[in-house]
Design goal:
Blueprint: H1 20-69, E1 101-106, E2 116-120, H2 124-128, E3 133-135, E4 146-151, E5 172-176, E6 180-192, E7 214-222, E8 229-242
Protein name: Class E sortase
Organism: Cellulomonas wangsupingiae
Keywords: Hydrolase, Membrane, Transmembrane, Transmembrane helix
């Protein structure tokens, strides 16, 4: 009796049960891949919100505040006449409550940029992220002797100081309140560390010195997309004019 011959299939056709360890590893890699994809989608969504949508919301909210204040909204030609410089001491508002909006800032150098509201305080959650430019509490009010110190975002949330590095010595910085215009001129710029609060002293960079002049200081984060340093612009008061008389020549045309 002849024993049947057993023929084995080719080696490449043989099947074997996958090892349990390899199956677990493949499953873990799949889960990790899905988590990384999800994380990437969430990160992309956060960047879109942070770098684009906060600007959309910030611009809208700040424009509404400017309208509510009754302030001119941009550097445009107006037909209400030229507000001539006035002699004597300028009117000075009392310092308002925290987060109250009381003035606007318009910078002719920033062509196309609207007037931005100025509100009391520099807290991010209640002022800078929602209202635009913040006024350092305890510093001079518009037209007051001392240093009118302001802070604003350079990116995100409407980025009111986005173009701060474009400013040049001699450029006008025009502040509006209900009763008066205050025109300042840029005198210098500098980059400092966040701890260098001397820049917002009553006499900029001279802590402890009593002021006899009227200054303005703008501060924002530096470099772009970083809070490592502060970019600072200093200016000095030039003149004031009554809002009832028209618009300062610096904003016309």
């Amino acid at each position: 009796m002849t024993t049947p011959r057993v023929v084995l299939p080719p080696a490449h056709a043989r099947t074997s049960r996958p090892r349990r360890g390899a199956s677990v590893a493949y499953g873990a890699i799949g889960v990790l891949g899905e988590l990384l994809i999800t994380l990437g989608v969430l990160l992309l969504g956060f960047l879109v919100w942070q770098l684009w949508w906060t600007d959309v919301e910030g611009d809208r909210a700040q424009a509404e505040i400017v309208r509510d204040l009754g302030a001119p909204t941009a550097t445009v030609e107006r037909d209400d006449g030229v507000a001539e410089p006035q002699p004597g001491e300028p009117p000075v508002l009392a310092e308002p409550a925290h987060a109250a909006s009381f003035a606007t800032l318009t910078v002719p150098r920033w062509v196309g940029e609207p007037a931005r509201p100025i509100s009391q305080g520099t807290d991010r959650r209640t002022v800078l992220d929602v209202l635009g430019i913040g006024h350092y509490e305890g510093t001079a009010m518009p037209g007051g002797v001392g240093n009118l110190a302001l802070a604003g975002h350079r990116v995100t949330f409407g980025k009111p100081f986005n173009r701060i590095e474009e400013l040049q010595v001699g450029d006008p910085l025009v502040v509006w309140t209900t009763d008066a215009w205050y025109v300042y001129r840029v005198t210098s710029t500098e980059v400092v560390l966040p701890k260098d609060v001397r820049v917002i002293a009553p006499v900029p960079n001279e802590p402890g010195v009593a002021p006899t002049e009227r200054f303005i200081t703008l501060t924002t984060c530096h470099p772009m997309f970083s809070a490592r340093e502060r970019y600072v612009v200093h200016g000095v008061f030039e003149y004031w004019a009554a809002t009832a008389d028209g618009t300062p020549a610096e904003l016309l045309g």
